[in-house]
């Protein structure tokens, strides 16, 4: 699943996994440990512009990352969102966010974005980003991942 671009250009402290079409990394500036971003390898502005291969891999990645987040963080569920509207981020990218059981109501659903890049919310530490990223990477690359039912 790894290619030369991963080894040369990824940031090791937040890199999770990749394939020929997608890269997954832990988001910086998040107040939630395990907030992931799934980004296509090529520049794509709309979901309709994905190739059939990219689209097929997208669904697989969203499920694999959600399962890994459940195993590593113990989250109750994951949120998956894609907007690509913020200045500088107009290429598509998917946020895959672990939602803990005790997440306050005012941060549930789309309001979870109140926990990303907000100066009034404490971010998880760089050490926690590295720790969670490594645990997710290890889980995804385990030769015998836990069975799901």
Descriptive labels:
3 helices, disordered N terminus, 29% helix, 149 residues, 17% strand, alpha+beta
Characterise this structure.
With 149 residues, the chain is an alpha+beta fold. The protein has a five-stranded antiparallel β-sheet with strand order 1-2-3-5-4. The chain has one domain: HIT-like (HIT family, subunit A, 2-Layer Sandwich), CATH 3.30.428. Helix 2 packs across helix 3.
CATH superfamily, please?
A: HIT-like
Widest sheet: strand ordering: 1-2-3-5-4
Q: How widely separated are the two ends?
A: 25 Å
CATH topology: HIT family, subunit A
Q: Beta-strand level of the residues, as a percent range?
A: 15-25%
Uncertain segments are 1-9
Give the CATH level 1 class.
Alpha Beta
Q: If helices are DSSP runs of H or I spanning 4 or more residues, what is the number of helices?
A: 3
Structural class: alpha+beta
Mean pLDDT over the full residue set: 86
Q: In the residues, how many domains can be counted?
A: 1
Name given to the CATH architecture: 2-Layer Sandwich
Assign a percent range to the helix content.
25-40%
Radius of gyration over C-alpha positions, nearest whole angstrom: 15 Å
- Helix and strand run: HEEEHEEH
Number of strands: 5
Q: What is the global morphology? A: globular
């Amino acid at each position: 699943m790894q290619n030369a671009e991963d080894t040369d250009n990824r940031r090791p402290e937040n890199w999770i996994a990749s394939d020929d079409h997608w890269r997954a990394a832990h988001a910086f500036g998040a107040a939630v440990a395990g907030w992931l971003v799934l980004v296509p390898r090529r520049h794509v502005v709309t979901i309709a512009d994905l190739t059939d291969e990219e689209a097929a891999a997208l669904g697989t990645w969203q499920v694999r990352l959600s399962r890994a987040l459940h195993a590593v963080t113990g989250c109750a569920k994951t949120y998956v969102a894609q907007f690509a509207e913020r200045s500088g981020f107009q290429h598509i990218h998917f946020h895959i966010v672990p939602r803990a059981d005790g997440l306050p109501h005012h941060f549930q659903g789309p309001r979870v974005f109140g926990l990303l890049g907000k100066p009034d919310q404490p971010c998880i530490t760089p050490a926690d980003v590295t720790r969670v990223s490594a645990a997710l990477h290890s889980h995804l690359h385990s030769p015998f991942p836990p069975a799901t039912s």
